Each structure stands twice: as C-alpha cells, then as structure tokens.
Amino acid sequence: MQAIFAQNALTPDGWQKDVLVELSDSGRISNVTVKAQPVDGRTTSVPLLLPAMCNLHSHTFQRAMAGLAERRGPAGRDSFWTWREIMYRFLDLLSPDDVEAIAAFAFMEMQEAGFAAVAEFHYVHHQPGGAAYSDVGELSARIASAAEQTGIGLTLLPVLYRYGGVDQRPLQGGQQRFGNDLDRYQKLLARAEECVANLSADAHLGVAPHSLRAVGLDDLREAQSMRPDTPLHMHIAEQLPEIDEVRAAYGQRPVEWLLDNCGVNERWCLIHCTHMTDEETANLAETGAVAGLCPVTEANLGDGIFNGPQYRQAGGALGIGSDSNIRITVAEELRQFEYSQRLRDTARVVLAGHGRSCGRTLYDAALAGGSQALGRASGAIQPGYWADLVAIKQSSYAGAAHDDGLLDGWIFTGDNGAVSDVWSAGRHCVREGSHIERETIAARYAQTIQNLMELL
Tens digits of per-residue pLDDT, 436-448? Predict the structure, then answer.
C-alpha cells in the first residue's frame, strides 16, 4: 500500500495540515487522516497536495504541429478555417507509429503539467485518403498504448464524423481519415472498448458525435443510444460561420437547437460553446451538462470568449481541456479563461464571488466539471475516489502563506514548474517534476518530429 504525507492538503473539508493519504492497490484512496504522522515504508512526503485535474478535451496528434500555423497567409483574413486546412494537410503525413509517439509525448506533458487523466476526442481513424486499416480500431489501439505507456487515466472518445458540412456534403481531403457510417462506427466502438478493457480499471469509453456540421439528426440520435451510460462529448458553437450554417439549415442556433431536440443532461460535455446568447447560457447551465472550455486553443484560433460570468451565476458546470495542445498547462488554461473575461469586461477578478480567491474558484470548478465529463470518480481527496493527485512545490508566490494563496500564485503567476509529483489512479508517474518515462518517450517523439519535418 502506498501512502502520501502532505504538510498541507486541499480536502472536501477545506485546507488541512499533516494529512496522510493512503492508497489501495486498486489505485483508489482508501483512507485520509488529518493531523497524522508519516508512516514507515512506502510513504512520499510532499509540502502541498491537491486533487489533480482531468483534461476534458484533447486531440493529441495536433501537438506535433504546434507552431506550424503561425505564419499569416498570402491573402484574406486568417481564421480557424485557414488553420484547419493546414491541420488537414499535416495529418495526412501521420502513420500509426507517429500517432502513438505523439500521443505518448502529449500525455506525458499533461501529467507533468498536473493533469491526471484525459478525454481523448479521437477522430483520425483511417489511412490518408480514407481507406480503412485492416483493424478498424488501429489508431484507437495506438492511443490506448500511449496511455498505457504514460500511465495517464484515459477516457477514449472515438468520434463519429460523417459529413463535410450541415448540407451533408461528402468528406474531402484530410477529412476522409475521419469518416464512418453508423455500422462502421459501431464496429469501431466495439474495438475501442476492447482497447480500453486492456488498460487499468480506471480507463473508460465514451461516444463523440463530432458536431452538428459533421453528423445528421438521425446519426446524432443513434449515437446517443450507443453506450448510454458513458460520457457523450460534442463540439458546439465554436465559430460564427458554423452558427450561421446551422441556423440556415435548422432554423435555430446550434445550442438552442441541441437543447430543444436532444435531451441534453449531465452525461453531455459540450466543447467550446463560445458563442451563446444569454438565454442559451442559462438553459445550458440548467441541463447539468459540462461546458468544455479550451481557453488557450480558443485564443490561439481566434474563436471568441465564453460567456463566463452568466454561466457561473446560473450554476453551470465547466471544465478545461488542452484541445490542440499548442500549450499543455493547467495554470495557463485557467489563467487565460479568467483573463479573457477581464479583457472583455474591463474588470478584475470576474469569475470569483465576492471575497473569494479566483484561483480556488477556477480550480474547484474545473476539478468537478472535468471529473464529471470523463465519467471518472476523481476530483477530491476522499476515500473511494481514484487517487488522482498532484503535489505542488513550496514557492515564493506572495500569497502562498494563505490557504488559497498558493492556488492564486500558481494559476496567475506560475507555470508547470510548480508541479513536483502526479499520481494517476495511484500510479506515481511524475516525480520531482519529470515523468518516469520521459527519456524514452521524448526520444521517440524527437525522432518522429524529425521524420515529419523531412516530409513537410
């Protein structure tokens, strides 16, 4: 049995001193004792222990193209849509070995940033040109293998992607690697389920209809009925042209139409939700679904700013994801979320209640929403929960002497260097700031990047 002794820990009862957290062999927290003493044997002592975050939205393959889309095009206005064309061309270069190597590197970086688990929104299924692999789940198996190598907790979300737009035009170019009809998607889910079953007991499967522009109404309803007890994730309302296209086809805005037609509930995680009216914001909050925010990617792509204060006031659940993985960082995602609200509203400390720490508010919200979105019993230092834990170094942040001050300091002035140790369902994967498999994973990734650069 492992044990962790923390001088300070954030528990469901608030900050506590001298906390002994005992972990069972299954990877769950078995006991939490306050005002304890370290025990002999397999005890790790840390200055400060937090529940670790879940990363609720990732496309790991995009980690390898970070920086490739930062040159302005020759004409017109650069946008998400011009970035997407670069992404499509890039993914056509990727082999299964590349996908696995990149995923392992990104998963490792997530853990070093303080994430213990990830929902991988996995939509690359086929060979370039759209021909199927002999194993329909070849690339799902590669994602699972990367998760096994790194030890990160995985919720695998094979994506249903049928069309190139709301008008159901055929997939073109790089999109052809995504496409499945419902029959083949069922087979893909069954194969992905096998991949997840071969991982540790904390691994999960979910379903992911890509977006209203990539699936039809019948497809969406069928996807809802598949694995009905698992998470369901979907992109929605990320871009203004997307909203215009959906409104022209369905007579309603995307979030409005979805809430009226699809029985959205706590099972759902809706990614981005960048452009919502006040009415949509309140109605989404009422469903209990999670708004999956990816503030660093949304800023990089010029998506827009989430309607944060109104959503929080309505009691909406939210979590954060690294999406394109251009930067993988817990602190910067939360910081960017709050800063975007400040810039829009020309105000400070927008998302916290009166007298509340902004860092603590953001961290608590993202803990709860991320765990819900992954279908993962985590997010608290509490018996019975998975031992998803992160140790933070003692720091020189000015507020660190106060209970919530270290969270304020880390989120608003710190970086990944504050993270010393991470446990994913009890697997002690990050020690003294580095992943235990960093050398091997980084070397394979470096070779993969070198090979890809020769093809560009």
Answer: 999 999 999 999 9
Task: Quickly list H helices, 19-137.
Answer: 80-91, 96-113
Choosing from 210, 233, 272, 275, which is the catalytic residue? 272
User: How close are the terminal C-alpha atoms of the chain, in Å?
Assistant: 49
What is the identity of the amino acid at 3? A
What are the tokens at 124? 């690359």
Can you tell me the distance from the alpha carbon of 310 to that of 304, in angstroms, rounded to the nearest whole number?
16
Tell me if the pTM is above 0.90. yes
43: phi then psi, degrees, rounded to nearest 5: -115, 130
Considering the candidates 98, 323, 388, 404, report the single residue annotated as catalytic.
Answer: 323
Q: Cα-flanking dihedrals φ and ψ of residue 396, to 5°?
A: -100, 15
Q: Confidence band (pLDDT; 50, 70, 90) for 152? A: very high
Q: Are 98 and 452 contacting, i.e. CB atoms less than 8 angstroms apart?
A: yes
User: How is residue 449 written in tokens?
Assistant: 């990047």
pLDDT per position as a tens digit, 15-53: 999 999 999 999 999 999 999 988 877 789 999 999 999
Known active-site residue 59: no
Cα–Cα distance measured from residue 106 to residue 65, given in angstroms and rounded to the nearest whole number:
12
Percent of the chain predicted with pLDDT > 90 = 90
pLDDT in tens, 418-431: 999 999 999 999 99
Find, among 420, 415, 379, 414, the residue nearest to 400 by Cα. Answer: 414
Assign 293 to helix, strand or coil.
Answer: strand
Q: Is 323 tagged catalytic? A: yes
Domains of the chain and CATH, by start: 59-379 (3.20.20.140)
- Write out the H or E segment, with its range, that includes residue 279: helix 278-287
CA angle 103, 57, 115 (to 5 degrees): 70
Q: What residues contact 108, with CB distance under 8 A and at least 6 apart?
A: 150, 152, 435, 437, 438, 441, 442
